[in-house]
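HUMAN: I'm a chemist; might I ask for a sequence paired with its structure tokens?

ASSISTANT:
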Amino acid sequence: MSLAANAVVALIALLHVYILVLEIFLWDKPAGRRAFGMTQEMATATKTLAANQGLYNGFLAAGLFWGLWLGDAGQSVKVFFLLCVLVAGVFGAATASRKILFIQAVPAAIGLALVLLA
């Protein structure tokens, strides 16, 4: 497996850890509200929903880290979780915010291409 592919997979995993932190711990704090463009009232009303969403992002990160930990044997694990990130990014861009396409889906597509070409 190429170093570049693994580096991109690791960055995507770290991005999803960051999203987990934003959604579980910072959702109704200034950093979370700024990241998602919400008022305090909206953040308070959706805090539990966001925490659930954050947990799913944590699972995506865990899967990518697992694939990295497995080394060359983890290629199929990385492909699966990158596909999950890609689908989630496309769905999020279509239903929530167009910027999710560039934050989540495009990096996943690049990572997937690198993993498959390695």
Q: What stands out?
A: Residues 3-117 form one domain. Residues 40-69 form the longest helix (30 residues).
